[in-house]
Each structure stands twice: as C-alpha cells, then as structure tokens.
Amino acid sequence: GNSVTQMEGPVTLSEEAFLTINCTYTATGYPSLFWYVQYPGEGLQLLLKATKADDKGSNKGFEATYRKETTSFHLEKGSVQVSDSAVYFCALGGYNKLIFGAGTRLAVHP
Amino acid sequence: DAGVIQSPRHEVTEMGQEVTLRCKPISGHNSLFWYRQTMMRGLELLIYFNNNVPIDDSGMPEDRFSAKMPNASFSTLKIQPSEPRDSAVYFCACQSKGSTNEKLFFGSGTQLSVL
C-alpha cells in the first residue's frame, strides 16, 4: 500500500542554518505530495505541494521537488529562523484522503 | 471564516466514562476527516465522510469508537467507554467540495487525557 517515510527527529539547528528534512514514499500511480507544518498547540496547515513529477513546491522560503526516480520529496530551506520551529509532516495524496508520515520536529535556536 | 472549530480544547476524564468530541467544519467543505495524533503512532486517520456519509472507517480502532455527521455543519467522535490508551490529540479536518488532492484544513485539536 501507499506509505510515507520521514527522517526521525528532532532536528536541532542554529538560526540561519540550512535545513533538509528527508521524505520518501511508496505509491501506486502518481499521487500528489505535500508538506504540512504544525506549530505548537495548533493543527496542521499546508506548507507546500507538488502534483506531478519534477514539480517544485515552494512557500515561505521552503522548497521541495517531486522526484519520481528516487521517490522522494525532501524539504529544504536555505536559512531557518527561530519561528520555523515546528513539526513537519510529509504527506501523500490518495483518493479523498492523505497519508501522513510520522512527522519531524525541528528546533531552531538563536 | 472562523476555520474548523473543535470543542472542547482539552478534556480530562476517568477511565470508563463516555467522551464526545465535536467539530464544526468550514462552510461548504463537503469532506470531513477525524485524525488521532500520538507520539507512538503519529497521525492516524480514523474515519472520513463525504457529504455527511461515512466513506472509510477502517481506521477506527475499536467498537468503542463511533463517529457521526448528522448534517454538513457538525460532526462528533464518541468514545464509550474510554480507556487510558485513548489519550491523544484528536483532530478534525475538512476539504473543499470538488477536490480530491487539495489541501486539508485542520482544527486546533482536542487534547484528551483518560486517567
């Protein structure tokens, strides 16, 4: 079946460091891929998405490219801020529902 | 728009008690999802509805769990009787009409603690 695997956290970085959070998937067909972010005490919210191979999703300085050949959708940001501290979820879009990875906690300190 | 509204925000109860979680989705969003989040298992889909009809409840862990959507603006998730292992954050999410892979809008969740 479809599944998503994310790198385990927590990821701890200094402000302005480069961020990569790895995500790989297993799926039949050509699903859409998503990154969601969860700030403390809140629900998840969509960060970015890509709907087909080689698409790049981007938002708030974050980017991820849909790589069909490596079945990956790694999240990157060139310079993180303290306000980026949150839990990040990779997700795969199946018909009428999303399958989420386990989440990766990011902690950014000044 | 107020977004997805869940209540209560926090619930503390004793084992064996009935618990009812409530959700008001965004108006016009015709798909509604209930998720459970724990440290051990991450985010699990429990059940989802399309046009108030339950489509897939394969994620509901046991018969103690039940969900209803009597109309387009309200859904409940009930646990009876509750057990300590049900302690988790329960999220309601909705999706807009006509989309299959568009984004979900999440509520702020209900933190459930069963003692």
Q: State the secondary-structure class of chain A.
A: mainly beta
Number of contiguous helices of chain B: 0
The Rg value of chain A, from CA coordinates, equals 13 Å
Q: How many angstroms separate the termini of chain B?
A: 36 Å
User: Sheet with the most strands of chain B?
Assistant: 7 strands, mixed
Shape of chain B: globular
Low-confidence spans of chain B: none
Let me know the average pLDDT of chain B.
91
Silhouette of chain A: globular
**Could you list the spans of chain A in which at least 5 consecutive residues all have pLDDT below 50?**
none
Multimeric status of the protein: heterodimer
The interface involving the most residues is between:
A-B, 23 and 22 residues
- Overall pLDDT level of chain A: 93
Q: Report the major sheet of chain A.
A: 6 strands, mixed
Helix percentage range of chain A: under 10%
Percent strand of chain B: over 45%
Instruction: State the helicity of chain B in percent bands.
Output: under 10%
